[in-house]
Structure formats: C-alpha cells, structure tokens
C-alpha cells in the first residue's frame, strides 16, 4: 500500500518492512519486532528493492535503516526455513538475495545511515556495517552468530568487519561467535558512535537532515570514492560466502544448529 500526502510524504508497507520518504529522507524500518526483526527471503528481496528505489529517486538525499522495537536485525528468520523450502526457495536463492541486499546498501548512490537500536546479529551485522554512518544505542551489540549454528558469515560481513577493524577482530567475532558491545565496536572503528538511548534519534536525525540539505552529486561521488578505497575485498568475500554458505545450509551441522537455537539448547555438532 502506498500513500502520498500534500506534504510530499510517501509511505509503503511491505512484507516485513516499511518505507517512509519525507523531506528528502527515506526511512526504511524492519517491522518484525516479535521476531527481533529477523528477516526472511521475501524481506531480503523487498529491502534490496527498497534501497534500489531510494537510490533511483532524485528527490532522496539520505536513507535511514533501522528496526522496529528493541532490535535492529537479528539475522535470518530460522523459523521460516521449512516454509521457504516448501515454496521452492533454494539456498542459492537465499544467498543471492542476501548478497544483493548488502550491495544495494553499498551501491546506493546516496549515503545510508544505520540506526542500531538493539542487537545486530547475523546478516544484521552486514547491514549495519554496509551503511556509511552507523549510530548505535549504548546497550546494543554486534553478534556474528553464524558459527554457533554451523554456518559462516554472509552478506559480506567477513570483508566489512575486516575492512574497518582488521583481521584479528574479524577472526575473533567470526570464529568464536561472541557479542561485541557498541562501545567496543566504536573503539574498533566498526561503527560511528554509541549513544545513550535518549540521544540516538537526535544524532541520527541531525546527520540525515544535514545530508538531506547537501549536494547529492558531491555526496554520491564522495561515497563512491570512499567505498572503492576501503571495500576492495567485498565482491570476493560475497562470492566466497555465497559458495560456502550454500554448502553449509545443506549440512547436518546447520540442521542441528538451527534446531538447537529454536529449542534453546546447546548444539551438538558432528565429530
């Protein structure tokens, strides 16, 4: 459903997310708070389309991505894996959608701001770090939880973490699967700032408003140059993650890891 008002505000509600554009700012919100904003295949495809549409809209100067409620995005919605398979959605299709979503943020010609209002886990980490400016509440955290369910990082997370924080921290997060508090993420140069809850929206809005009133072409060229200088390994990482994750999604370890997570018990991986 799309509505337009006299104030040039447009609002779209789709599967698992909403898009509101006003005052040259496009605000994309993941709207699955009961699932801590975990996203399924349809949401990944739709979000990729939303970023592409925002970038193609000449009136848009900035995009803000966030999650409804108390989470940013906690990764893929494992509760929908069986239903997706029944619809003929293959691991290859899922990885294509995940990679396209990350690229749609990186390649969006206008700056993207991530508003991290709680946990960012799994592909949520990739979405947070693919943004150009990432502001988080102090009680939020990053979690590359893939290894805990028999998977590997995807959405370009391997490259996005290493590009900002270096190989040692990327290895620790990816191989040990522990939480990284927002303050530590700032110290590691992974995100822009960690703020008290009551200051987060003001900081995000101030940045979005400044961008909305800035020169679109200059911002586009600046973003492109910065990404080309810092994200040189992204395409290779996306290809490696695609191949590896397709294999792992069909493995017995992932089946056990996913079931263990849903049953809230420790996983017992193969010897």
Automatic annotation (TrEMBL):
Q: Name the chain's protein.
A: Enoyl-CoA hydratase/isomerase family protein
Per the similarity annotation, which family is this?
Belongs to the enoyl-CoA hydratase/isomerase family.
- Pfam families cross-referenced by the UniProt entry: ECH_1
Q: Which domain of life is it from?
A: Bacteria
What InterPro entries does UniProt report for this protein, alphabetically? ClpP/crotonase-like_dom_sf, Enoyl-CoA_hydra/iso, Enoyl-CoA_hydra_C
SUPFAM superfamilies from the UniProt entry? ClpP/crotonase (SSF52096)
């Amino acid at each position: 459903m799309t509505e337009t008002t006299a104030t040039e505000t447009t609002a779209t509600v789709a599967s698992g997310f909403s898009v509101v554009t006003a005052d040259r700012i496009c605000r994309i919100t993941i709207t699955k708070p009961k699932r801590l904003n975990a996203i399924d295949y349809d949401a990944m495809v739709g979000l990729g389309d939303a970023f592409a549409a925002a970038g193609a809209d000449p009136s848009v100067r900035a995009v803000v991505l966030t999650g409804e409620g108390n989470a940013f995005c906690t990764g893929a919605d494992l509760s929908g894996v069986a239903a997706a398979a029944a619809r003929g959605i293959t691991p290859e299709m899922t990885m294509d959608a995940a990679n396209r979503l990350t690229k749609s943020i990186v390649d969006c010609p206008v700056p993207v701001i991530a508003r991290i209002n709680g946990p960012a886990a799994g592909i949520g980490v990739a979405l947070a770090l693919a943004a150009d400016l990432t502001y988080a509440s102090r009680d939020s955290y990053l979690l590359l939880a893939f290894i805990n369910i028999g998977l590997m990082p995807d959405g370009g997370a391997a490259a996005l973490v290493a590009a900002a924080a270096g190989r040692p921290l990327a290895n620790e997060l990816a191989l040990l699967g522990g939480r990284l508090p927002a303050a530590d993420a700032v110290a590691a140069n992974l995100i822009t700032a960690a703020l008290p809850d009551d200051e987060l929206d003001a900081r995000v809005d101030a940045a979005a408003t400044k961008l909305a009133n800035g020169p679109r072409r200059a911002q586009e060229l600046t973003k492109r140059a910065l990404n080309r200088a810092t994200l040189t390994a992204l395409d290779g990482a996306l290809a490696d993650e695609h191949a590896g994750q397709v294999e792992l999604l069909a493995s017995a370890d992932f089946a056990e890891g996913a079931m263990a997570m849903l049953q809230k018990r420790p996983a017992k991986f193969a010897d």
